[in-house]
Write a structure and sequence with these properties.
Layout lengths: L3 H26 L4 H9 L15 H19 L4 H11 L2 H11 L5 H6 L7 H40 L5 H14 L1 H14 L1 H21 L1 H4 L3 H29 L3 H33 L2 H21 L8 H14 L13
Helix pairs in contact: 1-2, 1-13, 2-9, 2-12, 3-4, 3-8, 7-8, 7-12, 7-13, 7-14, 8-12, 9-10, 9-12, 10-12, 10-14, 12-13
Amino acid sequence: MIYNDPQGFGVGGEYPASSTSASEAANEQLQKSRGPIFIMVTKSVPCSTLHLSSSLPLSFGGPVSMCIFLIVYSAAGSSHLTTVWRVCFGLGAVLPLSVFYFRLRLVTSKLYREGAIKKRVPYWLVLKYYWRSLIGTCLAWFIYDFVTFPNGIFSGAIISSLVKNSSIKKTAEYQLLLNTLQLPGIFIGALLCNPLGRKNTMMLGFSGYLIFGLVIGLSYDRITKMLPLFVIFYGLMQSSGNLGPGDFLGLLSSESYATPIRGTCYGLSAAVGKAGAAIGTQVFQPIQIHWGKRWTFIVAAVCGIVGILVTWIFVPDLTGEDLALEDRRFEEFLRKEGWTGDIGDDQPE
């Protein structure tokens, strides 16, 4: 609690603001490449496996943390596990602390200076205008985190139960393979962002949960006898999550809403996602105990179907247009509804 609460206020509070700021900055400099650039520079969260927080892309967080763990574990030995976790924990503070310098020098984007609403934010009108998009980004994020967080947290336990003559080091080596297999998804998603489209690529990623979840779940007894093959398919399932919702939930949450409420709607969507992560983590073990491990993958496949439907019905089909155009449409809607507040960073105090 002492560790997670400050992390939630710090990283959890800053991440939506920084992500939307990155989207606005990319819009000013490289609008046509905004989507791929946003994906590559903002896909970062704390790596929960070893509590090794870093600003590296999420897809690299797992392999990097596993490499560091294996190095520290090999140096300290199995009889000094207290030293291992303390060193890993301490190293995890280095990169986040280095971000302070860059964050303090961050310049407010032109879009925000021209489109901010600092007083009398018309939240009811925001819901009236964006209710469909909010349902889409919130539910899709809930589904994604419901699957990916428990699979990330409990992957070690699953692999450990399948490894013959299991040891911490051997399990970590398989986890390193699993985490490395997740890497291609992020790059493929970024490449498909513009040609295939944001919405279509996200549905493609959710379909990976359906395909690989069913393959693993329905053939669990056979595939687990060939552990490397199991890890490969497990990694492909996680990689498809990176390719689709992992890449595009942040992007779509930053592009679907106008500048005055972009950070708020992004933060709300991410918060609902974290609720999905908490619920998914709590139900993961009961599913394993009462239904068997295969059902954790079948449930992931079902979530893939739901994710496809939610994305198709509720998520807007964005094309990467100038974010200022959405700001104008939103302002026109507010004025039409009779809202008379001020817009812009130079609002009177």
